[in-house]
Design a protein that fits this description.
The protein is mostly helical and 211 residues long. It has one domain. 76% of the residues lie in helices and 0% in strands. Helix 4 packs across helix 5 and helix 4 packs across helix 8. The radius of gyration is 18 Å and the shape is globular. The mean pLDDT is 94.
Length: 211
């Protein structure tokens, strides 16, 4: 009974935070369109893409859970938890003092602070049912490895970059960009490994208690 109530509360919270992030993204997209900003640019922010994935995971997961129809695959949940955790960390380290232009302050708080914490907490509170192997977790790196060349190539063509540390027009040029990319890649690997370790450990502990 206790687990049932816990799961119901967790799924309601998933729906609530998923709707909050969906509203934040929708409001910011409308603002961008109203200001005649490029919607292609809007969809080229890693922050926006990772939050869109977070919205899908939370809304689908919460709905399936409340209906008793299963759950979002843990490998997918882990990937999105990784992307949003990195989004929060990069914001904290490199972007918190940066002028984010037309981004509304409350939207900024939802996308860069709240959602990373929510997806991380979701992973830790409801860890994977089966262990995630390191080989499986490597698939989590596919999206950022595709995003990086896309951003650099598109930036060279359009003369627009979503983040200052990816902009070779700043002092240091491509050398500084290469260093930033290396550090972010290491962060993805390190945080991904930590999520696998924590998720597997917590999942095993829950199985032991349940068993």
């Amino acid at each position: 009974m206790r687990d049932s109530v816990r799961d119901r509360v967790l799924n309601v919270l998933r729906l609530g935070f998923g709707l909050l992030a969906a509203v934040a993204l929708g409001v910011q997209a409308h603002r961008s369109a109203t200001l005649d900003l490029s919607m292609a640019n809007f969809f080229s922010y890693f922050t926006n893409l990772s939050n869109m994935a977070g919205v899908v995971v939370l809304l689908v997961g919460g709905t399936l859970g409340l209906l008793g129809r299963g759950r979002v695959p843990d490998l997918v949940r882990g990937a999105v938890a990784l992307y949003l955790t990195i989004t929060g960390l990069v914001y904290l380290v490199a972007l918190s003092d940066y002028d984010l232009g037309p981004l509304l302050p409350w939207v900024n708080g939802v996308l860069h602070r709240t959602m990373p914490l929510v997806l991380l907490a979701d992973w830790l509170i409801d860890p994977p049912r089966r262990p995630i192997s390191r080989q499986q977790a490597l698939s989590w790196l596919l999206f950022p490895l595709v995003y990086l060349p896309y951003t650099l190539i598109r930036g060279a063509v359009t003369d627009w970059y979503p983040y200052p540390f990816l902009d070779p027009r700043h002092p240091g040029g491509y050398g500084r960009v290469a260093v930033a990319c290396t550090l972010v890649t290491l962060a993805f690997v390190g945080v991904g490994a930590a999520l696998v370790w924590a998720g597997n450990r917590l999942g095993a502990g829950r199985e032991a208690v349940g068993g």
